[in-house]
Predict the structure.
Amino acid sequence: MAVKFKADSRRWLTLGYNPIELEKEIREFWKTNQTSQKLMQLREKTNIGALGYVEGPPTLNGVQHVGHARGRVMKDLRYRMKTMQGFYVTFRAGWDCQGLPVELEVERALGVKNKKELLERVGEEHFVEECKKTVMKYYREWRSADRKLGMFMDYDKAYWTYLDEYIEREWQYLKRAWEQGLLGEGYYVVAYCPHCQTSLSNAEVGLGYEEVEDPSIYFKLKVLGAKNEYFIVWTTMPFTIVTDMMMAVHPEAEYAKVKVNDETWVLTKERVEPIMQKLDVKDYKLLEVVLGKELEGIKYEYPFIDMVPKQRELDELPLVHTVVGEDFVDISTATGVVHLSPGNGEDDFLAAQKRDLPIYVPFDDECRFTTEAGEFSGLFARDADSKVVDELRKMGLLLSVETVRHEYPTCWRSHHKLVWLARREYFLWTDRVNKKVVKAAENVNCFFDSPKNRFLSFLKEGKPWCLSRERVWGAPLPIWVCEKCGDKTLVASKKELLERALETPGQHFELHKPWVDRLTLKCEKCGGAMRREPFVIDCWHNSGASPYASFTDEEFEKYVPVDFLVEAIDQTRGWANSLLLEHVILTGKAESPYKAFLFYGFVLDEKGRKMSKSLGNVIELSSLLERNSADVCRFYMLWKCSPTDSMNFDTRELSKRPYQVLGTLYHLHRFLMQNAEYDNFNPREHTLKWASENNVLKYPDHWLLSKLQQTVREVTEKLEVCEFQFAMSELEEFVVNVVSRQYVPVVRRELWSDNPETLNRRLAVYATLWHILKTLTLLFNPVTPYLSEAMYQRVYRQLDKTLPESVNFEGWPKPDEALQDEALEQEFEILMQCVSLVYSTRQNAQLKRRWPLQKVVVVAPKKVQTALKNLEEALLELANVKEIEYVKELPEETDEKRWALALGEGMQVLLDTSRDESLLGEGVMRDLARRVQALRKELGFMPTDILNAVHVAELDSGSVRLLEPYLSEMAELVRTRKVHLHKKRSEVKAEWNERRLDDKKVYVAIE
Ligand SMILES: [Zn+2]
Ligand SMILES: [Zn+2]
């Protein structure tokens, strides 16, 4: 048996597409050759321009799941494409190491219940060490998952948000804010997590809305001095009645006084009917309508005045426990009367501040009522809800109580319900630079409208940024306060700190608690000792400092604003927001630190449910990629839907179309390689130019080359504007339909021959396929880097040793107008229409495509006829007929038994369905040949191996008679020296294989 393949290529040519094995091999290849490092160096040295990039740092408090991976696939895609286009991209990794997420992860690992226990049992120093260990543990997990995914990031130049160098540069942002008066202390109502015992920023609040249950109560507050007159109020936070200070109505709205039994109720006129219905009051009478402002100043009886001594004290103050007018009161819901607790609500707080009222906030750090709350002291705020309801009921003030399920902000890390508390905090007064911020954001390219609108509408809220956190593991707030004179100073460098410190720190010093707290500075005003404000900085500020903190000054000048960022949609409130606010403060300009930002949608499970630990449907990347191919996953994520859409991730889909597309590309390469090696194709010699000069290119080749140019153009354009799913369908269509289903069948038979006279024609087909498939390999590289590299090494570098070491060092394909031929493409459209008409006729007449037929008559106008005549060779091959006749009009009479008709647009086809003995014989031969081909494959023969003999036994005598004239043609087709027919299997000793031929059994053996 002739072996026509080199040993190394022979191995892969026999393999099916097994991407998991292939990816392992390529990973080793990249590692051994340091491909990603070389690529970075190559583009740093020679490029057509530099593009800044800053990594949105993953938090190292858990492992990578598919939601993360979706974004990483897009990042890597952009990087590889831009790099192939010749740009240098600062594609450096970054790791988010500090803040609540990491702290809570460590608390869990240490089995600590809350912050108090943490500080007592573990201590700050030990806790910080544990946080670092956790960060390193998850770092290794992320690296390993990234490696499987095929990420080409620069990990050597990664930034780490907890390192002193980074924190010092983060402090520069604060210094700029301090100098501009945009950073300072404030007393304000902030969202507070009772579990984490820290306040959260406005942006963080938006990250954690969940559906929760709360009590919903209607109650009465009695008008002082009036007989049986009450305001009707609604709340879902009964505990705030303990801190109640005022009642608000809308000054311009109409309020009704309604008689209910012997009482008078006051509520907004608009809501009388629904509220009476709600409270099941049937008999009521409208007494009077007044404007809200006429109610202002009315004093009401505060219900818990005997239980809360402090409230009795406050009650003495003017305006306390009276009705005030406020425009924020919404009269379209509830009763249009709201009670105000300035210690527990932002609007309430502002209303009290406006009237110079004290703020009553009787809570400790665990959110329990202090002794100032009298009989409620010791109760956790939300636990006081039921006591409040009970007390109101006892006093006869409760009208109704039920439970509502509603969306309510919870802690984005610990999922506890947040409580609003007035606290002393440090703020970035970002509200004062809001115009610049919004203007900067308007100039950002977000590719799609809906994320952009979401981003802008959040930014327009423009609330101050509560920056201080009462936690441990974070960048310390670098503000020191004099114990004596109260003067404050911000020190933004480690060097300056150590110079100004009153005593030198011990051996170990780093910019973290507790070390940094131990430094006391000398007050420059009065000489007193200054102590640090004990806060750490919001971790979102920490990661949002990355454009300046991760670059040097010189790099910052060069690369910021960066070119393009990708993060999940929730980062409109998260990192994208921090980056923008900080950059505007740092530069003082209405400029965003990024020119473009792609916000991508969440990854949901196959049923469209959110992935969560409690549902157990989170897909971790590492385990996903143990059983699935990274390339297939990458393709799937980009192909399935638009990047802005939520994606239902269904692992069962991976093995369907996505695998099929990549498998087709793989098998097309095998097809090329098997044939090309056999004919000693030399890509450096047998180029398209050579083929064209020797006049061996035919219409199908020209057509395919022309189609490719449009594909290159479309794919590039779609990738540039992040319409990844359209780029993927372009590639899919070209690989599966255009090359595999349309082009290859036209040229396949030409390649079977080994006639030296037609060698040049075969070489021209290889030149065409080489060009087409290589271009596709490059276009696929940003999406499926493993498959592209494998094909590059096994096919292109195998046959052309002068090519660069890796596919990644290649340039991005550009459409070549010289190869484009629109007229030809249109003719091929006509051809394909005609072929598909023939196929449907065959199907109706139950004539298999591989059965040759005598004739087809095409009824079409001249123009269509000309097009088909130009491509007749391809048409004969695809339609599998012996001859074609063209007519302008349908013959008046046709034998309906013999001729099957199919109607198309502007074209009709008549197919001769009769089959004489020679056609039948050829059909039998092809059927048998197909089974022999399949057997050859099963037994591991190469398509070009020449067999010694093929044996066929127990074929019925009719078929034998038909087949006999075709034996030598069959021998050529299945590449054997001879085909032997046997009546019985026993006639020859062979390894028989049973096959079915239509309804009959037949036995085949090969040797
Ligand atoms: Zn929390
Ligand atoms: Zn002082």
The longest helix spans residues 724-752. The radius of gyration is 39 Å.
